[in-house]
Amino acid sequence: MAEGIFRKHAEKIGSRTIIDSCGTSDYHVGESPDYRAVKTLERQGIDISGLAARQFMVEDFDRFDHIFAMDVSNLMNVLALARNDSDRSKVSLLLDEIYPGENRSVPDPYFGGIDGFDEVYRMIDRAAESYLEKNKV
Question: Given 18, 67, 87, 129, which is the most exposed site by the fewest CB atoms within 10 A?
């Protein structure tokens, strides 16, 4: 969801930043997004149906200027792969963009209904817009 939402906001402000998403484990590699995530974003005019899951790699520290984690567990997994302070400085929790210093996690909507995906959409949408507007990337 985050990749599609970030792309929407980047396009809106004319940003040509590279946006990608991935997970920290390998058990969904190659899979399409959850159908509820696809439906939630379709209602917002965002198409993520063509995305496929991939796993975070150490090389991502070289490819990206900033790496957002959705929750503390993923944050710790990414930081464990950091090679140095420069890598670590690129990583933060996404919701720190709208709740600075609170270390809030984006809730995993998987085990709930569509309402959970709507709630997650609103959180990610606010954070993505805030980050891109502040950083003008």
Answer: 18
